[in-house]
Design goal:
Largest sheet: 7 strands, mixed
Strand order of the largest sheet: 7-6-5-8-9-10-11
Number of strands: 13
Strand content: 25-35%
Radius of gyration: 21 Å
């Protein structure tokens, strides 16, 4: 792991912002590794991600707020800082396991710099994957009648394991507003369509019946409005008359895996900034 800090900022755009931030880090002994910024919207709202080497930095990051406060006040900056630590990720899954297996593999080979302390499911189907990777697997059945109690068990497990991010890897349950409020912008879902979507069950069957020429997948943050959260990543693939139903399902699985893994990686690497209901992704 790199010994670095990451500063995410957003504020109204003004002249001198880049210089003020870069000078602050330089004069306190930091070596900037990456500095990306973007002006969003007609009002040119400023968003930036700055990463710097902490070797030789002259004060501890716990003291960063008091040192950075004059600049933050001067430019009305909303900011947060983090180190390049490995966040703790909980994976929720039901019966479809393709996204789960992809995430577990990418984490194992180091592509996803995170820890996975637990998995939660409403079915036993995917337990064999948890056993293979040595990850605790908690089966919590969810019904209309026991949903509040089930979510209480889930939230207790997340708290006990100090979870930073929840990934819904084809978890076929709708989370309650109370659950979502406990993890604002900390829950990522994969949707089996390039939103807007075919509504209801068996989307690939509907797409096949309509003779679509594109299918897609969308990863987004979960909000109280179903499938309406800020979109992190999307992708599509072409469909021709030669493709049967199984071809659509297979291509859909591949898209879902790639789109979800990219979204999770960008989140754990602190590359995402939110502006209104949109995301800005820094490479």
């Amino acid at each position: 792991m790199k010994n670095s800090a990451i500063l995410l900022l957003k504020c109204p755009d003004r002249k001198g912002l880049d210089a003020a931030i870069a000078d602050f880090i330089y004069w306190h002994g930091g070596d900037i590794l990456h500095f990306e910024q973007h002006q969003a919207g007609q009002e040119r709202f400023y968003l930036a991600r700055v990463e710097w080497d902490l070797t030789g930095f002259e004060f501890d990051l716990k003291d960063f707020p008091q040192w950075f406060k004059p600049i933050a006040d001067q430019f009305s900056i909303e900011w947060r800082i983090t180190t390049s630590h490995r966040p703790r990720v909980a994976i929720f899954v039901s019966k479809y396991d393709h996204c789960l297996v992809d995430l577990l593999y990418r984490q194992r080979i180091g592509e996803l710099a995170c820890e996975i302390p637990l998995m939660i499911s409403n079915h036993a189907d995917a337990k064999r994957h948890a056993d293979f990777y040595g990850i605790p697997y908690h089966i919590i059945p969810v019904t209309k009648e026991n949903k509040p109690a089930a979510e209480g068990q889930e939230m207790a497990l997340l708290t006990k394991n100090n979870v930073d991010l929840v990934v819904l890897a084809r978890y076929m349950q709708v989370l309650s507003a109370d659950f979502i409020q406990q993890y604002p912008r900390q829950i990522i879902n994969i949707h089996h369509s390039f939103l807007p979507a075919f509504v209801g069950a068996k989307p690939h069957h509907q797409a096949f019946a309509r003779g679509v020429k594109l299918i897609g997948a969308t990863a987004h943050y979960v909000t109280e409005v179903l499938d309406d959260g800020p979109i992190i990543e999307q992708d599509v693939t072409r469909i021709t008359h030669r493709d049967g139903l199984e071809d659509l399902v297979e291509k859909g699985r591949d898209l879902e895996k790639m789109v979800l893994s990219r979204a999770v990686r960008w989140h754990i690497e602190n590359r995402i900034l939110l502006y209104e209901n949109k995301t800005v992704i820094f490479d």
